[in-house]
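>> received
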Amino acid sequence: MSNFALLNNVDHQDIRVIAERSAAYGDNVMHALIFPFEFRSVQACYPILFQKDVNSNVYPVALFGFKENENLFLSDSGWDAAYVPAMIRREPFLIGYQGSEEQEEADRARVLSLDLNHPRVSKEHGEPLFQPLGGRTPYLEGAADLLEQIYQGYIHNKVFMAALQEHELIELVTLDITLNDGSQNQLLGFYAIDEDKVQQLPGNVLEKFNDQKILMPLFMVLASTVNIRGLVERKNRRLAVAG
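>> returned
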């Protein structure tokens, strides 16, 4: 169970964070939420699809595997990709808020929060968070900058997804995958962008997308679909080693 605390240099002076990538630290995930600011980097490595949460909100994800707890980019030597998505890198930090609960979220002060029960948190190993005199280390400053990017990313994601849904550009997809061992697999519950509908968008809509800074991310999503082939190849290689 998570145990989030607002980070400070008194109670958490001795805390360190382990930065290595491993299943032991929670990196064996099938996918992760991503944001438009990182789509260019994400599409160079992973397929970008969409999912619905329990409230039927649609959000973009980077796909790492074909079943729960499968990350085909993770091995004994770490994470095998040039880019690791922001929501993976931000662990074990989260944005916390100070102020009255009656205030709107945007009006409350954003502060760094840390999951003290996360397996990355240690007092013996990893990156220190505070300097001996209490100042933030470069590692913690980097984590704070990343969380601010993520906060702005959530806002941009809402604009991006609202535009896609307004123009009915999202469709439910089923991916049928045949592996080298002959097994048939289906990837269910994901959504993709309907490329035919994108091609039919009028110029004024494309111009609006460009003004909202969502046109390039849209193209990045479409470009990322070629990475499904690479993901299948990774799965085949893993099965060959296991066999």
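>> The chain has one domain: 4-242.
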